[in-house]
Design a protein that fits this description.
binds 2-phosphoglycolic acid, alpha/beta, eight-stranded parallel beta barrel, 40% helix, 10 helices, 245 residues, TIM Barrel, globular, 8 strands
Length: 245
């Protein structure tokens, strides 16, 4: 089973989200081989979720607030997303970390809030170009894992998405051999914190042309795709490429 998760970011307005969701709803593919997950904007979330309720397609939140309710202008809590049918939530996406200033501590609170309400968090981690050039890639990834996973129950269900910051939205995807090696490092490190088998996804400029290179690697359980996931034909060819592997 491979996971193909579509992070629509702020690319699609409500009607564009519904057009794409309806197109995807008519697509047939082998659901034993691939799990499709959609991460629409908060505005489109409930309608997209309604469309796929009871189907193998899962819908997730791009971001969550950690407190169930209260005076947090602009926030939507993990609990509210759970009530609205979210299966997954992205936490710690690098755009949240570096544009919106979220710290590892914020990411931990969001991660814990998801587990508390029964949403599967997808913990996004990744090094910056500076980390990479300074030889600090593994240090950064291990730190991001440690600050969130220390103290978490060994039975907790979650995913990790390895998304090098320099590869997101740049067209400069991480070489597949390097990505596979890093996934091994991440999986090794995860053994410290969990007794579960945790899927680790690769994200960062994945498209329907380069996806084939990652597919043969056992340690890469699937993909978190941004820009290439916001358009029907791209999603269609991504699905086809994964299924053909
Ligand atoms: P990208 O984004 O595919 O546009 O690089 C990936 C992500 O941010 O999850």
């Amino acid at each position: 089973m491979k996971y193909l998760f579509a992070n629509w970011k702020m690319y699609l307005n409500f009607s564009e989200s519904m057009i794409l969701a309806n197109q995807l709803a008519t697509m047939s593919y082998d659901t034993e081989k691939i799990q499709l997950g959609l991460f629409p904007s908060t505005l489109a979330f409930t309608e997209v979720e309604k469309l796929f309720r009871g189907s193998p397609v899962c819908v997730g939140a791009q971001n969550v607030g950690w407190t169930p309710k209260g005076a947090y202008t602009g926030a939507v809590s993990a609990q509210m997303f759970k009530e609205a049918g979210a299966t997954y939530a992205l936490v710690g996406h690098s755009e949240r970390r570096y544009i919106f200033g979220e710290t590892n501590d914020d990411v931990k609170k969001k991660f814990d809030a998801c587990l508390d309400v029964g949403i599967i968090p997808i913990l996004c981690i990744g090094e910056t170009k500076e980390d990479l050039e300074a030889g600090k890639r593994e240090y950064r990834l291990k730190k991001q894992l440690m600050t969130v996973l220390e103290g978490v129950s060994k039975d907790a269900q979650f995913f990790v998405a390895y998304e090098p910051v320099w590869a997101i939205g740049t067209g400069e995807a991480c070489d597949h051999l390097q990505a596979a090696e890093i996934h091994d490092v991440i999986k090794d490190e995860l053994n410290t914190y969990t007794s579960q088998s945790i899927p680790v996804l690769y994200g960062g400029s994945v498209n329907d042309e380069n996806v084939v290179f990652y597919l043969p690697h056992q340690s890469i359980d699937g993909f978190l795709v941004g820009s290439a996931s916001a358009e029907r034909d791209h999603v269609h060819s991504l699905l086809a490429a994964v299924l053909a592997a």
